[in-house]
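User: Predict the complex.
Assistant: Input components as received:
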Amino acid sequence: MRSRTIKVDMLARVEGEGGLFVKIKNRSVVDVKLRIFEPPRFFEAFLRDRDFQEAPDITARICGICPIAYQMSSIHAMESACGVKIEGTLRELRRLLYCGEWIESHALHIYLLHAPDFLGYEDAIRMAKDYPDAVKQGLKLKKIGNDLVTFLGGREIHPINARVGGFYKAPTRKELMALVEPLKWAQEAAVETVKLVATFNFPDFEQDYEFVALRHPDEYPLCEGRLVSNRGLDIDIVDYEKHFEEQHIEHSTSLHSVHIGSGAYHVGPLARYNLNYDRLTPAARRAAETVKLGEVCKNPFKSIIVRSVETVFACEEALRIINQYEPPEKSYIDITPRAGVGYGCTEAPRGILYHRYRIDDSGNIKEAKIVPPTSQNQKIIESDLYQFVKNNMALSNDKLTWLCEQAVRNYDPCISCSCHFLKLHIEQE
Amino acid sequence: MPAKTATGQDRSRLLIIGIGNEFRSDDGVGLRIARELTALLPPETKIIQGSGEGASLIESWNAFESVIIIDAVKSGALPGRIHRFDAVASTVPVGFFNYSSHAFSVAEAIEVSRALGSLPSSLLIYGIEGKSFSNGTELTPEVLRSAVEVKNLILEDIKTITMKSAVTK
């Protein structure tokens, strides 16, 4: 009996702390674990009895990379609980802020975290020596996303300007116009990025995934839409918990989410792209066509191309919003809380982020539930590892370990986010 | 003459960056020193407080001639130990900032910046050995004592930097 183990104690180039473990016995894969040991963070518990207006600022602390996603999901959930829908300019400003986060997060992952895998470098430091222009382009692109979030969000990390009902302060037209030239550069740079990453070598690997993403009647999804899948799911986000449930797994401090009755599902750029190709903005679609990406992409290693196409979209959408912008008369709508349950689901850079809150008639939060994208992708990451190792047994351990780490990074996992909650079980004898 | 950036702009003089998480006990020491310096230095002195996300750091020091970074470290030395080194002269020791859970950390930011030729002319790093990184907003006594010392050392550094800058002008 021959056994072989592929083990990475501490995954590099992912947010947070996790490792991976694959065990092979007699040429079959017998165990696969994405180990998550980042400490749990109990956000859902300490949201209880806080005011509904505090949820965006508290939940933004869950993640330094995607705080806007937390703000947007919580804000939409609170507005749904209070029976309010924000339209017009304020809605557009939210999309603009979200575009900033996508540009920032995608640029970081494409250039500094994922590209070294394809170009054969252990990290971005070594890659920067041979590809200085690419790294500089990535850093500049990321900074433009940062600047947009800093400007509209009020500060660079843990933004504070978004609120239930709108924004504490809305920008003037002149202020926003200052972002036009950098964003035009960013859109061009993103198009170049699509062309660059499409030249990488991709392992021949596809699975028959169930992709789940938001879908909106007119837009590539950011803040709103129905939840759909390529296997016929088409639900209001209010029904999310009737279709998806979280399970506690021993080797992970974050919960695993499953589609009830069918199991693992895939969220993030690939899911959004495959389910919303027809909603891409013109330049983003042209960029995808230029590199012959096709309307459906099932190879998770090619998520780097899809992320680049989405960066083109985010720049193009940001420019459209700025060009049409007329400041609102008031930067927010006054909202009177009422007892009820509210739901929010938005597209974080890594995939859908679901929030549900129950509040009382004075606006106190009585119950909170948060399902981040990385919890939802954990099962699919393990399933990819299982299948990938099975298909590539002939490779050396070093090569296989490298590719397994790369396979995890395909999902740009944010382990810090996924560990926001854990059901504690203490066993005593 | 002030140094030029890669894009030919004049680099401003001095940037101070405090890094950490104020809710993780000693990890907040860099932020605390940065805040205290803000009260002591002229308002035009650029002081920022950050989480240590590396990619933004590279961009933030792009336009500065001299940069001072203050962060908590966990290298195995005695709590409160002050590490001071010149990052232009030598590479950042491996594992020095190993408490970071960021995908792209401070040490990587410095080394990528070195590879790109975008390091400032002077980059001083103050690392203060932390004792407790658990939840909490208080510093441990060892780290608190070192925080006072580091603040004074930085005020001395600033004098030297200002004098050098006056001479080169």
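Residues 1-10 of chain B have pLDDT under 50 and may be disordered.
Let me know if you want any component modeled separately.
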